[in-house]
Amino acid sequence: MIDAKKIEQIAEQVTNAIPPGVKNIADNIEEKVKAVLQSKLSQLDVVSREEFDVQTQVLARTRAKLEQLEQDLEVLKKQLSSDE
């Protein structure tokens, strides 16, 4: 769902922001931050980048078809009006 590399980057940034003395208190803080982030992000109603890209392509094809249909309709309207 969410890109694992992004979560690792965020977790690493959070870990790097913690002073060295505090880092020694909590072992594996980066793993704990990753777990919390993963848990919270999985609760969000989001789609993956891959799903988003697929839907963007579907929308582009649908838009092209709609534009073609609108053009076809205009041609038919002109034909009907010239026949009258």
Description:
This protein is mainly alpha-helical and 84 residues long. It has two domains: 1-46, no CATH class; 47-84. Helix content is 83%, strand content 0%. The protein is built from four helices and no strands. The chain has helices at residues 4-17, 20-25, 29-43, 49-83. The relative contact order is 0.10. The mean pLDDT is 84.
Mean pLDDT comes to 84
Radius of gyration based on Cα positions: 26 Å
Number of helices: 4
Number of discrete domains: 2
Strand content: under 5%
The N- and C-terminal alpha carbons lie at a distance of: 58 Å
Give me the strand/helix succession: HHHH
Question: Which structural traits does this protein have?
Answer:
single chain; 84 residues; mainly alpha; 4 helices; 83% helix; 0% strand; rod-shaped
SSE topology sketch:
Elements: H1 4-17, H2 20-25, H3 29-43, H4 49-83
Helix pairs in contact: 1-3
Short recap of the structure:
The protein is mostly helical. It is built from four helices and no strands.
